[in-house]
What does this fold into?
Amino acid sequence: MRLPLMLLGTALFAAAPVAAQSIGSDAAACNGNAGPAIRVNVTGLKDRTGRLKLELYPANEADFLKDDRDLRKEGKFFRRVWADMPASGAVQLCIRAPSAGRYALLFTHDRDNRNKFNFMRDGAGFPGAGKLGRARPQMAQAIVNVPAGVVTTTVRAQYLRGLGGFAPLD
It folds into this structure.
């Protein structure tokens, strides 16, 4: 049986996979490929509660994870993006960078919506491989090179796993 060309085109269009759309206040930069920006695919989430946050820091040891008020007071770059947790599907966030360059990226899963990191409950992650453990994260784990366009990276969420510290769930 032959399908009319119009129906065949509709069937092919419906079968094509739909690309995940970025969420968060900077989503338009990634969804429109209007960088410089970082598209972050988040994996390993513990659950679908709370909110998600990305923070972008200057890529140097002195400024990495420094309080944003201090960075701004010193005239240095800092950016934070929040997003509500989607009920289902892939989780993809976006954060704009001020220009192409090298930055340090932090992801947190604020499971209790308190806007303060709770070591016992919340999750965190960086683009680099490896578990976070109990020590302060190393800047090398957080580095992202941002082009003039949009770069995509993956962050695997990690949560407190007993005495060993933070690690992925699986």
Remarks:
- The CA atoms of residues 54 and 107 lie 5 Å apart.
- The chain has a mean pLDDT of 88.
- Helices lie at 5-15, 27-31, 68-73.
